[in-house]
Design goal:
One of its GO terms (biological process) is post-translational protein targeting to endoplasmic reticulum membrane. The chain has helices spanning about 5-15, 20-40, 65-80, 85-90, 95-100, 135-155; strands spanning about 15, 45-50, 50-60, 115-120, 125-130. The chain is α+β, with helices and mostly antiparallel strands. The chain has a five-stranded mixed beta sheet, sandwiched between helices. The chain starts with a helix and ends with a helix.
């Protein structure tokens, strides 16, 4: 991994929350929606815990196709317990990783924008996903939002 990818991987692994509730999902979803609206980003947003969707939104310009991308990005995040962007970078190594691991492109997408929700003492409980921007921008938007939630929760403790 290069230095930038190492830094992103470290940033992702540092995003461990003390808790995650339905109210946190709402706050996080509204944060992402406001961030997207402020720059007129045509994004779809999805926050799920296990198989349950707690927040979903389509901003102007986003379509059901973005939700399809989210579903496939979330699937790869769950399978590997890592963000879809980190898996994209791992799969970009030249070898056909989809073929090697028997992954179906209709089910999985190794494209940035889906980041695990991790809770201290529990592990991965869900995924926050954005689709509609270039994949690194999708990924960074989610990392920024999770960082904001983490800071908010630390301030409440």
């Amino acid at each position: 991994m290069d230095a930038d990818l190492d830094a992103l991987a470290q940033r992702e692994s540092d995003l461990i929350l003390p808790r995650f509730s339905n109210d946190d999902a709402w706050w996080l979803g509204c944060f992402l929606r406001d961030a997207g609206a402020s720059c007129q980003a045509p994004i779809a947003i999805d926050i799920s815990v296990g198989p349950t969707t707690l927040f979903t939104a389509l901003l102007p310009g986003a379509t059901a196709d973005n939700l399809g991308w989210i579903k496939r990005k979330v699937a790869i995040a769950w399978r590997y317990q890592k963000s879809s962007y980190l898996m994209n970078q791992k799969f970009a190594g030249g070898e056909n990783m989809f073929e090697r691991f028997g992954l179906d492109h209709a089910t999985y997408a190794a494209a940035g924008g889906a980041v695990p929700i991790r809770v201290a003492g529990v592990g991965m409980i869900g995924v926050v996903a954005v689709s509609g921007l270039p994949q690194l921008d999708d990924h960074l938007m989610v990392l920024d939002a999770l960082g904001a939630l983490q800071n908010k929760q630390k301030g409440e403790a």
